[in-house]
Write a structure and sequence with these properties.
Shape: globular
Helix content: 25-40%
Strand order of the largest sheet: 5-6-4-7-8-3-9
Number of helices: 13
Radius of gyration: 23 Å
Order of helices and strands: HEEHHHHEHEHHEHEEHHEHEH
Protein name: DEAD H (Asp-Glu-Ala-Asp His) box helicase 11
Number of strands: 9
Structural class: alpha/beta
Organism: Coemansia nantahalensis
Largest sheet: 7 strands, parallel
Distance between the termini: 64 Å
Strand content: 5-15%
Keywords: ATP-binding, Helicase, Hydrolase, Nucleotide-binding
């Protein structure tokens, strides 16, 4: 009876997701998750009692999807609890967004989109491109060259553990890892060891030229870790880390978000197998919020400085670029560059920076 109650499709805004996987010995492992898809219901207690609500954070961009999910005018059921006067107060024009500049001056940040590698191979790592050996080698060659001009630590983020393992193995087979290691020892995020402690020890060792840390967006090292000063003189994003659409939890969330468009603003229904515009907006926001959290790990105080390199041509596309934090480019759109000119800019950037 309990399962029937919480799994009822009449409970708009909540879903029971059942997922079956196989253990190493072939046995079935069943996982149940009860998902809250409509946060405006839980947020409603604050909304009804407060005269003003302030949501503050260091890495909240993009925020449009957050506003749409928390304010009741975007959710059909929550509107039923509001009087006409309350609805007028919740006009979108009364929602104000503020974004302040970073604590560091713009001269302390060198942010670049790199669309081509050292030999001119396009840098794009969508799912269908991730098996392209030429592009994998090109990213490795770019990282190896970058390590020659960046002092201290270089933190490299990948979209998934699978892609990290694939690219690291390919780089090792091509001798690229060994080439990097001659300049900076390479550490890779692993669940069975304290990779961060080993990386930190190497970077801070007297006379050290730094180290390279390979990690994953959304992993243990992408949130809540401060790569300040020499621990993160450069952050490199390999690819655009869109979450997997194979996740049943994500699919339920996207489907629900697409379904709650107000009747007067509802877009045309998407064709079978295609993502609707509202779902696409949320999908982009989830991805780019994770990107922004990762690249923000390197600038931690007002005297800090770092280079940020986005190794994927898609970061220059307006839909994605509009979600990047304003502080990395001083409010201007990032321009994409081939690797050669980008490397020259990075080298010049560090020459003008004071020694740590």
């Amino acid at each position: 009876a309990f399962m029937g109650c919480i799994g009822s499709p009449d409970r708009t805004g909540a879903r029971l997701v059942v997922r079956t996987t196989r253990t190493a010995d072939g046995a079935a492992d069943v996982e149940l998750k009860y998902l809250l898809l409509d946060p405006s219901e839980a947020f409603g207690e604050i909304r009804k009692e407060a005269r003003a609500v302030v949501l503050a954070g260091g890495t909240m961009r993009p925020v449009d999807d957050m506003v749409r999910q928390l304010l009741p005018r975007f959710g059909r059921l929550a509107l039923a609890d509001c009087s006409g006067a309350q609805r007028a107060l919740l006009d979108p024009k009364r929602v104000q967004q503020f974004a302040w500049s970073h604590v560091v001056p713009q001269s302390h940040v060198c942010a670049l989109v790199v669309d081509r590698g050292p030999t001119g191979e396009p840098l794009r790592f969508a799912f269908q491109d991730q098996a392209n050996p030429a592009r994998i080698r090109e990213a490795g060659q770019a990282l190896a060259a970058l390590c020659n001009v960046v002092p201290g630590g270089v933190v490299v983020f990948f979209p998934s553990y699978a892609l990290l393992a694939k690219m690291q193995a390919a780089w090792a087979a091509a001798g690229i890892v060994q080439r990097i290691a001659r300049r900076k020892p390479v550490f890779s995020e692993a669940p069975d060891q304290d990779t961060l402690a080993l990386y930190t020890e190497q970077v801070r060792r007297p006379g050290s030229s730094g180290a390279v840390l390979l990690s994953v967006v959304g992993g243990r090292l992408s949130e809540g870790i401060n790569f300040s000063d020499d621990l993160g003189r450069a952050v490199v994003m390999v690819g655009v880390p869109y979450p997997s659409l194979a996740s049943p939890e994500l699919k339920e969330r996207l489907d629900y978000y697409e379904s709650i468009a107000a009747p007067e603003t509802a877009p045309p229904a998407p064709r079978a197998g295609q993502m609707g515009p509202r779902a696409r907006s949320l999908y982009d926001a989830l991805c780019m919020r994770a990107v922004n959290q990762s690249i923000g790990r390197a600038i931690r105080h007002r005297a800090d400085y770092a280079a940020i390199l986005l190794l994927d041509a898609r970061y220059a596309e307006p839909r994605i670029a509009s979600h990047l934090p304003t502080w990395i480019a001083g409010g201007h759109a990032l321009q994409s560059r081939p690797f050669g000119p980008a490397l020259a800019l990075v080298a010049a950037f560090f020459k003008q920076m004071p020694p740590a």
